[in-house]
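Sequence design from tokenized structure. All designs in this work follow the same two-part layout: the structure record, then the generated sequence. An example of the structure record is given first.
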């Protein structure tokens, strides 16, 4: 039985920071959408709506990085080193490790990823004369560099000294059965989702319906200056509003589709929870269908002027 010693990256500050920023962006995005609903002028509505959608689009990215940090770990055993950062998995056989060394003691200054923030120092940089360095870290200092023939990996164990001592002890013990080399990227997981026929059908249905909704609304707005966007309790059309407000429906539908898409991918990882992924992706197609029906009734209600 193999004995693994686990090291974790510093988490607290990165998790708190990314969570706070996600909540702030979510509130700001929802506020922008709410203000767009209250605006009668078309250009002013777009002024609120477009930045709000960009802000809301950043929330899933931050949430993924928070999830990746929460699940990140570095494991050392006498047969190799295992690195995990979100959906990125790397298994390095002990026989392919050339050296392990703290980056602050290297002669070469390593370039950091261009896009980074506390809790998410990820990316690949090329070092002239040294090759590629892939960062799987939560901070930019006290890093450990693991060199292999293909590339080096910069990691940030909370206890760098303990990591180095453990690695040295494992190499002294030797290995009879090195672990198999493995390198799994998030794109490989996306390919696995796409290769499943039921998942492909459901996702394509949701995407086609979402695109149809957006095209229908976009083509209908120029010929209708105003529309009845709501109905009164007695079923009669409400007050007329600028037709550009109808864009709220495809934008809201797109946000729901993307949220269900990424959440479903999280559940698709495990076979026991894949039914939840299909439920979310199927609900996106149903939601798009309901929005299409709503647009049909809105465009057919009352007299447009």
């Amino acid at each position: 039985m193999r004995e693994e010693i686990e090291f974790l990256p510093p988490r607290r500050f990165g998790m708190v920071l990314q969570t706070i920023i996600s909540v702030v962006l979510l509130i700001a995005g929802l506020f922008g959408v709410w203000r767009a609903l209250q605006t009668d002028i078309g250009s002013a509505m777009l002024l609120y709506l477009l930045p709000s959608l960009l802000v809301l689009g950043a929330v899933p990215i931050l949430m993924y990085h928070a999830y990746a940090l929460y699940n990140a770990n570095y494991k050392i055993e006498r047969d190799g080193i295992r690195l995990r950062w979100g959906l990125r998995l790397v298994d390095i056989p002990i026989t392919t490790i050339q050296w392990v060394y703290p980056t602050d003691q290297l002669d070469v200054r390593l370039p950091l990823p261009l896009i980074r923030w506390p809790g998410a120092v990820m990316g690949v940089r090329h070092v002239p004369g040294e090759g590629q360095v892939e960062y799987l870290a939560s901070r930019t200092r006290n890093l450990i560099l693991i060199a292999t023939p293909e590339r080096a990996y910069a990691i940030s164990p909370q206890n760098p000294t303990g990591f180095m001592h453990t690695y040295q002890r494992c190499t002294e013990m030797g290995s009879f059965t090195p672990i198999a080399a493995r390198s799994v990227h998030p794109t490989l997981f996306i390919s696995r989702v796409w290769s499943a026929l039921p998942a492909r059908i459901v996702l394509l249905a949701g995407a086609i319906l979402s695109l149809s909704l957006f095209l229908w609304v976009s083509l209908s707005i120029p010929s209708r200056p105003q529309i009845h966007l709501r109905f009164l309790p007695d079923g009669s059309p409400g007050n007329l509003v600028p037709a550009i407000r109808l864009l709220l429906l495809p934008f809201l539908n797109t946000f729901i589709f993307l949220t269900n898409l990424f959440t479903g991918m999280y559940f698709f990882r495990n076979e026991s929870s894949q039914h939840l992924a299909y439920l979310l992706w199927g609900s996106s197609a149903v939601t798009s269908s309901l929005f299409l029906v709503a647009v049909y009734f809105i465009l057919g209600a009352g007299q447009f002027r």
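Residues 42-71 form the longest helix (30 residues). We note this feature because it recurs in several other targets discussed in the main text.
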